[in-house]
Automatic annotation (TrEMBL):
Belongs to the ubiquitin-activating E1 family. GO terms for cellular component: cytoplasm; nucleus. Pathway: Protein modification; protein ubiquitination. It comes from Scyliorhinus torazame (Cloudy catshark). PANTHER family: UBIQUITIN-ACTIVATING ENZYME E1, UBIQUITIN-LIKE MODIFIER-ACTIVATING ENZYME 6. It comes from the Eukaryota. Keywords: Ligase. SUPFAM superfamilies: Activating enzymes of the ubiquitin-like proteins. This is Ubiquitin-activating enzyme E1 C-terminal domain-containing protein. Coiled coil: none annotated. GO terms for biological process: DNA damage response; ubiquitin-dependent protein catabolic process. SMART domains: UBA_e1_C (SM00985). The lineage of its organism: Eukaryota, Metazoa, Chordata, Craniata, Vertebrata. Residues 136-258 form the Ubiquitin-activating enzyme E1 C-terminal domain.
Length: 267
C-alpha cells in the first residue's frame, strides 16, 4: 500500500518544468510524514469498506446538474479546475463562483448550437431549392449583446491559368490510371483531359518531375507505382501540378490538386 502511494506522490507535489534542475534537487520535494499517514489511512479505509472494487471503479456518464448539491458535480468541477489553476498559476475560484460560471456556460452552449443549426439548415434549404447565389447569406451573431448581422457572400476567387482555364479552392482535377501507367502517361492524361500540359509534378514534399533537375527526364518512363510506392490499400494520391507561364521569364502557374487513382474508373 505504501509503495502504491509513493507512485502517486508526484501528482501531489508542485510540478517542476525547469529541465536544468538536477534530480537530487527534485528528491528534496518530499511530503510530510503526517500527509503520508493520512493518505495511507484513506487508501486502507477505501479497501476495507469495499469502495475500491472493480464494479465501483467503472466509469459511467452522468448528466451535469448544478442545482443538486448532493450529487457532488459542482464540487468535482471546483476541485478539478482549482488543481489545474494551481499548476499553471491561475487564480482559483470558490464553489459559488464555479457554480455561477457553470450555470452560464451550459445554456450559452445550448442556445448558440441551436442558432447555428437553424442558420445552417436555412442555407441547406436554399441549396436544395436551387436558389441563385444572391439568396445565400453569411451570418455573425452574438447572443450575449444580442446582435445578428447578415452579409452577402462574395463570389469564390478564381485563379486563372489560361484565358479559358481557371480553378477555385473548391476544385480538384481527377486522373484515373492503371498499374503500368507511367509519369509520361499521367502528364499526357492531364493535357488531354484539361487542355494544358503540366511542367512540374510534386507529391507532398517529394518532387516527382521537375525538368530542370538532373535525371528527372528519365523518370518519364517510370510507372507511377514505382515513383510513389503506395501502400497496398491506397486507392489514390493527391498531387500538386504546375504549368508553364504564358510569357517567358514568368514563374510557373499553380494548378488545382490533381487526384490520381491507381486503378481505372469503376462504373
Amino acid at each position: 500500500m505504501k509503495a502504491m502511494y509513493m507512485k502517486t506522490l508526484p501528482f501531489l507535489q508542485q510540478i517542476e518544468t525547469d529541465e536544468n534542475v538536477k534530480k537530487s534537487d527534485q528528491a528534496k520535494l518530499a511530503v510530510s510524514s503526517e500527509e503520508e499517514r493520512v493518505a495511507i489511512d484513506l487508501l486502507n479505509k477505501a479497501a476495507r469498506i469495499g469502495m475500491a472494487t472493480k464494479h465501483r471503479l467503472q466509469m459511467t456518464p452522468v448528466s451535469f446538474e448544478k442545482d443538486n448539491d448532493r450529487n457532488g458535480h459542482v464540487d468535482f468541477i471546483t476541485a478539478a479546475s482549482n488543481i489545474r489553476a494551481k499548476m499553471y498559476s491561475i487564480n482559483t475560484a470558490d464553489r459559488l463562483k464555479t457554480k455561477r460560471i457553470a450555470g452560464r456556460i451550459i445554456p450559452a452552449i445550448a442556445t448558440a448550437t441551436a442558432a447555428v443549426s437553424g442558420l445552417v439548415s436555412v442555407e441547406l434549404i436554399k441549396i436544395v431549392g436551387g436558389h441563385s447565389f444572391e439568396a445565400y447569406r453569411n451570418c455573425f451573431f452574438n447572443l450575449a449583446i444580442p446582435v445578428i448581422v447578415f452579409t452577402e457572400p462574395a463570389p469564390v476567387r478564381k485563379t486563372q491559368i489560361r484565358n479559358e482555364i481557371s480553378f477555385t479552392i473548391w476544385d480538384r482535377w481527377t486522373i484515373f490510371g492503371r498499374e503500368d501507367f507511367t509519369l509520361l502517361n499521367f502528364i499526357n492524361a492531364v493535357q488531354e483531359r484539361y487542355s494544358i500540359e503540366p511542367t512540374m509534378v510534386v507529391h507532398g514534399v517529394k518532387m516527382l518531375y521537375v525538368p530542370v533537375m538532373p535525371g528527372h527526364v528519365k523518370r518519364l518512363k517510370l510507372t507511377m507505382h514505382k515513383l510513389v510506392k503506395p501502400a497496398t490499400e491506397r486507392k489514390y494520391i493527391d498531387l500538386t501540378v504546375s504549368f508553364a507561364p504564358e510569357s517567358d521569364g514568368d514563374e510557373d502557374l499553380p494548378g488545382p490538386p490533381v487526384r490520381y487513382y491507381f486503378r481505372p474508373e469503376e462504373n
